[in-house]
Amino acid sequence: MNGDWGESAESNGQHGLGADSPTAQQDVLLGRIARALGTVETLDEGLHVLTDALQAWTECASAEAWVRPDSNEQRLTRVTLATAAADSEASAAAPTTPTTEIGDGVPGRVWDATEPVWTVESDDEWSIPNAESDSNPTNPVEAAFGVPLDTGSRRVAVVVLYFTDSSALDEQLRDVVSAVVDDASGLVSQLDANVELERRQEMLDRLLETIPAGTMVTAPDGEITRINGRAEDALGLSEAEATGRQYTDLGLTAHDRDGNPIPVEDHSIVHVSETGKPVFGTEFGFVGPDGTERWVVMNSAPVMGSDGSVERVVSVARDVTAREERERQLRAFREAVEHTGHSVYLTDTDGTIEYVNPAFEELTGYDETDVLGKTPSILNSGEHDEDFYADLWETILAGEVWHGEVVNRRRSGERYTVNQTIAPVVDDNGDIDRFVAVNADISDQKRREEMLERRRNKLERIQQVTESLRPLNRELARASSRDEIQRLVCEQLAVSDVYQFVWYGDYNPAVGRVTPTEVVGVGGDFVDQFSVSSRTIPWKWHPFAEAIRTSEVHVARNVLGEGNGTDRRQHALSWGYQSLAAIPVAYGGTVYGVIGLYTSRPNAFDENERALLGELGRRIGHAMNAAENKYLLYTDTLVELEFRSEDPDSVFNELTTAVDCRVTLEAISPARDGGYVCYANVEGTPVATVRDQLDALTTDGHVRVVEEESSGGRVEFTLTSAASATLLDYGATLRSLVAEDGTTTVVGEVAPETDVHEIIAAMRGHADTTFVAKRTIDRHESVPATSRETLDDVLTERQREVIDLAYHAGYFEAPRLSTGDDLASALDISSPTFYLHVRKAIKRILDQLLDEKRH
């Protein structure tokens, strides 16, 4: 190889320079090197050319070049070695690649130096490097000369020449070598630049392919100059097929979300080319070569030339088709959620609300701005305990769906019930990303269910009450005395599953007091502690006083719910009941007593149960009246009580004083409003005069002439109270009432065993009323006893009252003295109701009579 470089330095005279000047020698050598460098492409090849030329020309023992492969390391690597060996291939590359630290040895010291380094060393220190094996030098080295090779401010390599004869390395040789290396550095640097350019181009190519998006480089006129692999896939073209074509000629039409084509002048590439400004985030769709729609987001930026003009436009398009599909599905989902009738909200994995739909706002009363960033605990009504919510979270965090009914609270504080479903939403990796809760408002359904449940319970209670009363009704029909009836009532009610305990109390109208006489299911000390008066009402027992006063059932449905300080609540706690009922026992205007009924059921005694118990009270009253009548019917003697009233305020006395007449009471019956309807015969004065006087005396002014005669007649009128009615209250029969000259005489009949002292005391309670006589008389019955007993059995209390008044009012006479409308008005009922009572009563009487006749 050395022969390729022409004559050696030695053939040209001393030190290889001969007669030629150093400059001439330098020019010749540099020309040869320049021609050789023109045939190589890489820096390493150029350094081979340089070291080979220098070794051949100087005939040094060896020449080598060292480079720094990594600028971050302090180590040099030998890239070429030229020796005087005959084998030219041996000088091209050594089998090993020696390295040295910067600053060590000749190469290292030359790299650190700013000028060439000339060194003369001892024979022991230096050896000539051998291409075959650097580890076995054969010739000692006496001198070394190193020259740095720089390109501008950058050090590219160092060249080191080794000499076995130090005298050969004179100053002239050093100058020539230094000048040649310095002049050759420009040529070598060009190779270095080419290498750097190739390296950068390779890096650019790798970078272009590494970009995780389709990338296209275009000229300002839109011509494609480069595309990467992802762009090839998207366009369906290879880089060779795409390069040189206008990007608008690829057959791909960009369109917006509405499917409208995007004009070319609106393309981001055109905008960048015209303005030199980048455009980011352009989103559009196009139909790919496989026929499927794709969506991309494109960023386009200019590459500016040295003159400030746009040389290239680089466009990077990221495929967002999958994201667009997810967004489309999300838009469709949101559209569906926005219009669904169910309340829907989304939370993150910590339960923070991220979205609510309009139905949520309508259901809860909260606006979206009120709840975003908060948790669903703002809806907590306090209905559910911690375990309830712990189970909910455990379920959904495990990736499962939770279903259940939840009672929540609106913003207004009102409670509502939802059927809630909470499901986890997972990402592409299967991890839980958020939760979606769907709530169906079932408040109305729950109210209907509760209402049906209440109705069901009510019907069950009614059935229980009815079953409890059925045996009692049968027993009442067979009872023969008031004492027996009282005992039966208490026993039958107490043994039922509906009630806890019961007591019965007799009512004394003379003093307005109830005295308990029978108690079952609780100790006698329960009733020993109180008595009830309708005149002086102990507040804590007022239901019993009100029951007597109104003849209606009165209850306390939730005794324990009353204030902590009430005596009745303390009493209920002591005896274990929660509700009580006061049931009046009355018949025909007579109140016989009151029943106290207790139960451990809260909120017991609803309107249906009260109606049943009210009917029971009337049945018991009817039974007591029937028992007394039976006794009267079957006994041979009666007790007759006579009273005289000279009370000037009595209607009868005031009437006969003002009008000279005689008044005989024919009938008296309780009216619907609590008064009494009376029918009286008048003698000695025109009945019209009596009517006018009664109009002035009675408070309600209801007076009607039933029958008019020349000196008297029959009159109908209503009284709010009357002394004679006291006899009816005690179950006595009013035998006669005659008023004349301001004095009224009243005669009543009772059974022999009746306690007449109470009746006498009650009658004396009226002003200017005296007891005249008590007589035991024999019965004189014009109607068979069985007929009277049968009449009481077949007619209801109201039917008996209506028939009795109709009879005394002349309704059944011909011509009629009173019409149905007249009697309906007197009884304060409608005319159809009056006629209905009359028809049913007559039918029952006829059925009984005809049945008796057939038998």
TrEMBL record:
Gene3D superfamilies the record matches: 3.30.450.40, PAS domain
Sequence ranges assigned to domain PAC in this UniProt record: 280-332, 402-454
SUPFAM superfamilies: GAF domain-like, PYP-like sensor domain (PAS domain)
Keyword Ligase: no
Swiss-Prot/TrEMBL GO biological process terms: regulation of DNA-templated transcription
Record protein name field: PAS domain S-box-containing protein
Region of interest (Disordered), ranges: 1-22, 86-110
CDD domains, sorted: PAS
Ranges annotated as biased composition (Low complexity): 86-101
Keyword Transcription belongs to the record: yes
Phylogenetic classification of the source organism: Archaea, Methanobacteriati, Methanobacteriota, Stenosarchaea group, Halobacteria
Pfam families according to UniProt: BAT (PF15915), GAF_2 (PF13185), HTH_10 (PF04967), PAS (PF00989), PAS_9 (PF13426)
Entry keyword set: Transcription, Transcription regulation
Residue ranges of domain PAS in the record: 200-246, 329-375
